[in-house]
Design a protein that fits this description.
This protein is α+β, with helices and mostly antiparallel strands. The chain has nine helices and twelve strands. Bound molecules: dinuclear copper ion.
Length: 369
């Protein structure tokens, strides 16, 4: 093919190609979550929140469905690209040839073909998609011995209730390995979406409705998730950590969680408990005490958690101190819109605590193991 013949095809400038490659690289990097400031990376190793790296049978089903759809789409992409390239080259304008082309508008055979083929492809993809969707929501059979957990989305944290054990916790869920976990999801305010990519698909937590999803972990480990439905200011800070443990470790954890808190009787912890009773009990509960409100995370075994504030902050004294000074400095919230009587909470307010009160409160919280 001579230089003259090719002149009708516009050449791609190298910078355009480079830009395309760069965009592609960014798109792929997003799948693996390679941001070094990503908190999840700290606790979840090299590939946090990666649905392409399933860690259990439910997530594996979602993963194989993804690859099936991907390869069908890849084949279609190649066929369409080749056909497009062929049409561009074969029917390009040539010197000495008339510009007018033969019109094929209204070709009935072609119209039928390109209506039926995509319809058949979509129907073929729909069968495994729907069956997988139903499968990961299916109520487990009694012999599966599934663990039941009630999940309640709040702006902006997750509440987890373990009805078989009679306790409530927040932001961190513990599960036994090799055993299905059946979640029943709802929301206390707006629509949230529960998603731990390595363990299961996404499921919305909708106010006034109960949704279900199965998840299961093959091996012990920490699995990170986050709210996957925009739910307001701190949506991006609404995470969850799932700790998969051996059955024995899980049972030990669950029994400890079901034990009521021991109220301190002396020192800074006692002073902190007194501050807690005047400042915190209109929102927070600590089981075994007079604090029973359910508008904010249940703090009964707060010190046993690795994180707080929608699982975005590691549970350290520094974070707690800063949080108690002014929570909105760490997570964007609108506590000035709180209406406790109406059960509406949009974040923890700055309570105007003195440094001494903060120190005492931290001493108290640290006793809640
Ligand atoms: Cu909850 Cu987004």
């Amino acid at each position: 093919m001579s230089e003259r013949q090719l002149s009708g095809v516009p050449r791609r400038h190298p910078s355009v190609v480079a830009l395309g490659l760069l965009i592609g690289a960014f798109a792929l990097a997003a799948c693996a979550g390679d941001d070094p400031t990503n908190l999840a990376r700290v606790v979840d190793g090299d590939v946090p929140q990666n649905s392409l790296n399933p860690a259990g049978p439910t997530a594996a089903k979602v993963d194989s469905l993804f690859w099936m759809v991907f390869w069908i789409a890849a084949v279609i992409f190649v066929i369409v690209s080749v056909a497009l390239l062929f049409a561009v080259l074969r029917f390009r304008e040539r010197k000495g040839k008339p510009r007018a082309v033969r019109q094929v508008h209204g070709n009935t055979k072609l119209e039928i073909a390109w209506t039926i083929i995509p319809a058949v492809i979509l129907a073929v993809v729909a069968v495994p998609t729907l069956s997988t969707l139903f499968e990961i929501r299916r109520a487990p059979a009694a012999e599966d011995n599934a663990l039941q957990i009630e999940v309640i989305g709040h702006q902006w944290w997750w509440e987890f209730r373990y009805p078989e054990y009679g306790f409530t916790t927040a932001n961190e869920m513990h599960i036994p390995t090799g055993r299905p976990v059946y979640l029943t999801l709802t929301s206390a305010d707006v629509i949230h979406s529960f998603w731990v990519p390595r363990l299961s698909g996404k499921r919305d937590a909708v106010p006034g409705r109960l949704n279900n999803i199965l998840l299961e972990a093959d091996a012990p480990g920490t699995y990170i998730g986050q709210c996957a439905e925009f739910c307001g200011l701190a949506h991006a800070d609404m995470r969850q950590r799932v700790f998969a443990e051996t059955e024995a470790d899980f049972e030990a954890w669950a029994l400890a969680q079901a034990t009521p808190a021991a109220v301190p009787t002396e020192g800074a912890a006692l002073a902190g408990w007194e501050v807690f009773q005047t400042q915190c009990t209109s929102c927070h509960a600590i089981s075994g005490t007079s604090a029973t409100a359910q508008l904010a995370p249940n703090l009964t075994h707060f010190a046993s958690r690795t994180a707080f504030a929608g699982a975005t902050l590691d549970n350290t004294e520094d974070h707690l101190r800063q949080w108690l000074r002014n929570p909105s400095s760490l997570v964007p919230m609108r506590p000035e819109l709180n209406d406790l009587a109406a059960g509406r909470v949009l974040g923890m307010p700055d309570l105007g605590l003195t440094e001494q009160q903060i120190t005492d409160l931290i001493a108290f919280l640290e006793t809640l193991e």
